Amino acid sequence: SGIRPAFYYSDDEVIAVASERPLIQSIFGTEMGDVREIPPGHALIMKRNTEFWLQRIHEPRPIKQCSFERVYFSRGNDADVHQEREALGRNVAAQVLELIEAPGDTLENSVFTYIPNTSEVAYNGMVKGMQRMLVQRQMEAMNSDDKESLVKLLGMEVRASKVVTKDAKMRTFIQEDSSRESITKFAYDLHYGTLRPEQDVLIALDDSVVRGNTLKNAIIPMMDRLKPTRIIFVSSCPQIRYPDCYGIDMAKLGDFVAFRAAVALLKERGMGGKLQEIY
Questions:
Q1: Contact predicate 205/126, CB 8 Å
Q2: 143 with 104: CB under 8 angstroms?
Q3: From CA 15, how far away is CA 34, in angstroms rounded?
Q4: With left for phi above 0 and alpha for psi between -120 and 50, is residue 2 left, alpha or beta?
């Protein structure tokens, strides 16, 4: 079903195989079309005499790639992965704008940021989506008689800023449980002066939320030091609901923030008995 990717490149001198396409492109200076994907259910057979061929070893099933692989682990400089991540961010823009404006806030007092480093592409998609909606409102105002609103909209912009910085050498997600909490507290820091204390709403996008430990122990307490009026946290990827059995450290269902949220909602609605029925 193609849950894990594999790509290969061949010429008169070499044949190379890797789990990600851009790695091969960068090393061999090839075009995207020169690197081919090994189809699901197939194996790449190579011999010492330089012969190679693709051979079907299982009946191919419908494509069901691991979404977390595409959203988090894959290299963001892959053309397809880049477009997918940007689209994920763009898709949440309208809902985020509704959350901003519901209590009476506007883009004027909203600062958009992201949790480094893998979520930057999705964040760019969200900002582009915001800019597109702002331009649409400006055009609508130009066709109306409300000059005051037009002047206000023309002076408005999407305030995008890198509020949080991270030590690129630290991958907190893949640390052991015993050391993850202490590491997350020192992996991130703030860019001070990026928002107005007690005036601005802070909208922070992350590309994935699995356990939520980094949010709870580091990100939210740190952002709160900037004194925003509200913090709106946005996850651009689908909820991580099920344990992973392919080597990614997501083995405990009870650790997932999506699962804990579902349990909390059931109890809040007086439906806690459903848990016993299901499990």
A1: yes
A2: no
A3: 12
A4: left
> Using an 8 Å Cβ cutoff, are 114 and 203 in contact?
no
Residues 6+ apart with CB under 8 A from 5: 19, 20, 37, 65, 69, 74
Alpha-carbon distance of 183 to 249, in angstroms, equals 17
Q: What is the pTM of this model?
A: 0.81
Instruction: Tell me the per-residue pLDDT of 170-217, one tens digit each, with 9 for 90 and over.
Output: 555 545 555 555 666 677 889 999 999 999 999 999 987 777 778 888
Handedness of CA 192, 197, 203, 204 (dihedral sign): positive
pLDDT digits (tens, 9 = 90+) for 26-65: 999 999 999 999 999 999 999 988 899 999 999 988 887 7
CA distance 246 to 244: 6
CA atoms within 13 A on the CB side of 134: 19
Question: What is the DSSP annotation of 202-238?
Answer: EEEEES--SS-HHIIIIIHHHHHTT--SEEEEEE-SP
